Amino acid sequence: MKILSALQQKMADERAIAQEPISSLQLMERAARLCLGAMLKQYPDQKRFRIVCGSGNNGGDGLAMARMLLLQGFEDTVCYRMESGHYSADNQANADRLYQFRPDTLQHPHAIQLPEDDEQALWIDALFGTGLSRPPDGLAADWIALLNRQKKVVSVDVPSGLYSDGPSPDGQYVRSMHTFSFHAPKEGFFYPAARISFSVVDIGLDQTFTDSLEGELYCLDRASIRQIYKPRTRHSHKGDYGHLLLVAGSADKPGAAVMAAQAAIRSGCGLVTVYCPEKVATALALHGPEAMLQLAGRDLIGDNAGLPEGRFDAIAIGPGIGTADETTSALNALLQRFPRLPLLGDADFLNLVAAGKIPAENWQGRSLFTPHPGEFRRLAGSWENDAAMFDMQKAYAAKHNIELLLKGTYSCLASKDGSRWFNPRGHAGMAKGGSGDVLTGLCGGLLAQGYSLKESALLGMWLHGDAGERAATAYSAEAMTAMDLVHRLPDAWKDLSQPQNSYCAPGPKLA
To answer: What is the enclosing helix (H) or strand (E) of 182?
Structure first.
């Protein structure tokens, strides 16, 4: 789905009002109802609610939600409305409705009489929406400080104080545990410093219209992934699904080769050949019997080894290979032997590129790089903030005519066509050694099947994140391992063949 700017979100609202036709107040009512439904589904045991509303339309959403909670029997509901010299028309209309229905529910605390903290309540942040462009101050800052002291806080559309169109000043926004975002996520959610958990609430805006708006920022969803996915035909054989050459492993890192090979095998690739040292081959024979082996030396790749022989459709290089001079020479010779094959570069391969030991002519124009931030810093240099990091990522991809997938909480693909794609799927349990090796094998196997560099990155990171969420559910964030990602890939693949609604990431459970 396309990530909209605050102005584009407003345009989409106005189009819905004009086309349906529907009044702005009716659209607000619908958005509030759907948002509240998602919230109650996420937190079904919650009975006590405190809603903090600002003076604009985001506050109007909160006022409407307070009335709806009371209508549904949630009597322990209090709505706090921030004092203001001006309220939007729809905000005032919903305040009047709430007051007429249950006047004691609507309160207007003064700056010196803000409500007391309440650890048992679910606080609903509806202070500010997408239009904010400066740090909150005065009474607004006091309300944000109050919300940030609470144990359980969720936000409506945008955490109040967060800039929707870019990075936000540190500490000036509500640190909610989850945000229910209308129609599409906001750009500001994806900056690593923001640490936002969100799900998307479909409020019935015109998707065709929003897709037509200018912009280069996208968030992966199930619909976009299904457009990439190519189901297998019944009448086919292994040769129809490509042959991956995976270059991985060394004597002290055999597991990297095993994890990457297992993921490649689970990618749907027809054939996988691993070019590895003898010290790795035994582990692969035991834990990846479906893969074929070509030996590349005794302890590391390149100690007097010959080059791999065969017909391949893609190459993936990096997991556990080390950075020895012999390995560098072997890799350059291999890349020169297969100069036109699509290439995935990760881990130590990227470190060799950063050190200038793999010349650009051996990878430029045909590659997908998958660095974590540390590896990318070695490739492109340091940055001052998240915005500069993303700018450097885009510039590096454009300069070298490659796809660059930067791994993180919300992994981001900067495509050589100028677009940028964020992945909402994944789990904190994936923050462990080996997870990147699994992604390498998975994306490499997709490349070998004929998916483009960009398609392989998008489909691969979606499946990788989906498998991570499933593994965390099955084993916990603490106990899950990188190999558990491989074991959950079959379920992630099965999900693509089953029609469902677009994915919305679940928020955290309440204690």
So the answer is: strand 178-182
Ramachandran class of 381: left when φ > 0, alpha when ψ lies in -120 to 50, beta otherwise:
left
Whether the Cβ atoms of residue 201 and residue 181 lie closer than 8 Å to each other: yes
Per DSSP, 2 falls in state B
Q: Please write down the HEC assignment for all residues of 311-329.
A: CCCEEEECCCCCCCHHHHH
Q: State how far the Cα of 155 lies from the Cα of 488, in Å rounded to an integer.
A: 32
Going by pLDDT thresholds of 50, 70 and 90, the confidence category of residue 120 is: very high
349-381 exposure pattern, b = at least 16 Cβ within 10 A, e = fewer: bbbbbbeeebeeebbeebbbbbbbeebbeebbe
CA distance 279 to 299: 6
- Long-range contacts formed by 11-19: CB under 8 A, 24+ apart: 11/213, 12/183, 12/205, 12/206, 12/209, 12/210, 12/213, 13/205, 15/205, 15/206, 15/209, 16/204, 16/205, 16/206, 19/206
pLDDT, mean of residues 55-76 = 97
Query: What is the widest separation between alpha-carbon atoms in the chain?
Result: 85
The dihedral through the CA atoms of 298, 299, 300, 302 has a sign that is negative
Tokens of 242: 């490509």
271 phi and psi angles, rounded to 5 deg: -140, 140
Q: How far apart are CA 191 and CA 390, in angstroms?
A: 9
Rounded CA separation 60/146 (Å):
20
Sheet (strand 106-107) strand order = 106-107, 77-81, 49-53, 122-126, 153-156, 178-182, 198-201
Question: Nearest to residue 348, comparing CAs of 329, 364, 330, 328?
Answer: 328
Tell me if 204 sits within 8 A of 21, measured CB to CB: no
Res. 342: pLDDT tops 80: yes
**Mean pLDDT score, 264-275:** 97
Sign of the CA dihedral running 401, 402, 403, 406: negative
d(CA 259, CA 273): 14
406 forms beta bridges with 412
| Nearest Cα residue to 296 out of 307, 309, 311 | 307
Does residue 421 carry a pLDDT above 80?
yes
pLDDT tens column, 348-379: 999 999 999 999 999 999 999 999 999 999 99
